[in-house]
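Limitations

Structures in this collection are predictions, not experimental determinations, and the ligand pose is part of the prediction. Treat each record accordingly. The example that follows, with zinc ion as the small molecule, is included so readers can see exactly what is and is not provided: the inputs are given verbatim, and the output is the predicted complex.
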Amino acid sequence: MLPIFVLIYLCSELSEGISTNPIIYDLTWTFGNDTIYWPGWKKFEFTKQIHIENNGLYSANEFCAAEHGGTHFDAPYHFYQKGWKVAEVPVTRLFAKGLSNEAAQWIVDANKFVGVGLDTPSIDPGNTTDYFVHKIFAENSLYNLENVKLLDNLPERGFNVVVAPMKIEGGSGAPVRVFATVEEL
Ligand SMILES: [Zn+2]
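Predicted complex:
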């Protein structure tokens, strides 16, 4: 099966990006026991710590996981020493527009995208040995979204995307919540 891409480019005006009543799609897989991780890396581990029901509820838990699993964000630093780490990616780049299919070099040459998302575990093909796509995107300050939950009813183009990675200091990647918003016609 071919991966499905979302090309993400910057909204020129943040204020015009979200209308008062958009349709909002959640493009994120829920983190839990079934979340996919690369073999050998720490899976999502959720530990119930406190649950006190006494005149109401106090509940608090812990979680632990590798950066690069489930729906997640690849910072350019993942494959490029001088690249932005997760907390360094400018927040203005995390509100963007999505398009449909094109190829890596074309995306870089087009010089108008800030990131690329796809519905497979890696932006490179599974049998890659040189990680060409990761590297060329990282060196051009593009981030990747991997394991995006792309929905059939998302229009082919013309939607806005909000990308909200956990802001991990020094992170090369992070769990991410991704939304698409479509203007109601
Ligand atoms: Zn990754």
